[in-house]
Specification:
The structure is a homodimer of 191-residue chains. With 191 residues, chain A is an all-alpha fold. Chain A folds into two domains: 42 residues, Arc Repressor Mutant, subunit A; 127 residues, Tetracycline Repressor, domain 2. Chain A is built from eight helices and two strands. In chain A, 34% of the residues are buried. About 3% of the residues of chain A have low confidence. Strand 1 of chain A pairs parallel with strand 2 of chain B. Chain A binds a DNA duplex (30 and 30 nucleotides) through helix 2.
DNA sequence: AGCTGAAACTTGACAGTGTCAAGATTGAGG
DNA sequence: CCTCAATCTTGACACTGTCAAGTTTCAGCT
């Protein structure tokens, strides 16, 4: 009762229970009031930490993206070289969304992938998973002694990412049978 | 006044104004009541034609998908052979969403791509754009005298579609600069 | 120690939403 | 002319995001 007006770390708790609720009932059934209630807090308490419902959702996206990025990192750590690392990371990318189909629509909805960066026009380079791809790609160029112009590199990167991202999109389509066993890496990448 | 209770073809009008509203203010700002009002009809009139808001949205998706499919068809009509047709269609696929960025999130949101087919588990083969890819792909195999198992063909198709779909996804990311000129076909496909 | 002001939270209200039940209107077929 | 189903209206309900105003708490200053 003493701390009725001090919830210690409500901000983080809102984010965490928000994720839990989305996992349980999906983003479309998440309400600000519901999250607040689940935290034993009044329905407008979140407004002390987020100016908007969208701002909370953005915070959640950032949090999920961090976990996602971690998984990609660990996936390519054991790789012998950059080429194998790229494959491993691509498959981890696909696997992540195949395991959490709801996250794809949630993270890329309205295509606001860089939720934590406010201004209007942001560069892909600011998207952590893309940064990982980029590092590995540059390592790949170096290891194989390949020289490419900046423009060529940009296009290559978008193609690599595009393939992986597209496969992930297809891999997590709900209620749609693609005839593909997405658990089998040999089916997916292996370019 | 006589036809206060007969709007001739309200169902289609709801779908059309629904599309218009989405184009103007986005899906997230579309309300059933708003669509009804825009059709000069009471707020529950739509319930005579759609049991749900979702059912109206599904009808709209179907309608948009039809236009999308038409564009893909015309894109590959002039192609000299199946290989060129595949490239043309892929670029048209990407171009469509680059021109209408809102449609990507709208159509593939919750990954319910086959909106007009109700039962739970549907096959990709029922998705019209995919059918076009499949036809062209089979033509490509025949023209080049290539023999592949059914499984190999399925994987090939998902890969082709995955690449194109992923590029389209990246091409229409809002507020994200990919450093790519998506209007220039030479940047995108050309596998 | 007491005051002050900002931060965190509550309470109460508002308009807008999807949905449903009940009633009104219409036209087609017996 | 009657009936009945389809179509649309009216009125209500609970729920939503948001805001304004009030309450509690605590840190920092005097």
């Amino acid at each position: 009762m003493s701390d009725k007006y001090h919830h210690e770390n409500l901000r983080q708790e809102l984010i965490d229970t928000g994720i839990r609720i989305i996992n349980e009932v999906g983003e479309e059934n998440l309400s600000l009031r519901g999250v607040a209630l689940a935290c034993n807090v009044s329905h407008s308490a979140p407004y002390a930490h987020f100016k908007d419902k969208e701002e909370l959702l953005d915070a959640i996206k950032t949090s999920v993206t961090e976990r996602f990025t971690e998984e990609l990192k660990t996936a390519c750590e054991g790789a012998a070289n950059a080429d194998e690392g790229l494959i491993a990371m691509g498959n981890a990318y696909i696997a992540f969304f195949h395991r959490n189909p709801d996250y794809y629509a949630f993270l890329f909805n309205k295509q606001k992938i860089v939720a934590h960066l406010q201004p209007d026009k942001k560069h892909v380079d600011d998207y952590p998973p893309f940064q990982l791809f980029k590092e590995l790609y540059k390592k790949h160029l170096k290891e194989n002694n390949i020289k490419k112009s900046k423009k060529e590199q940009e296009i290559d990167l978008i193609k690599i990412w595009g393939i992986v991202h597209g496969m992930a999109s297809l891999a997590c389509m709900k209620g749609v049978d693609t005839s593909i066993d997405w658990e089998d890496p040999s089916n997916t990448l292996v370019i």
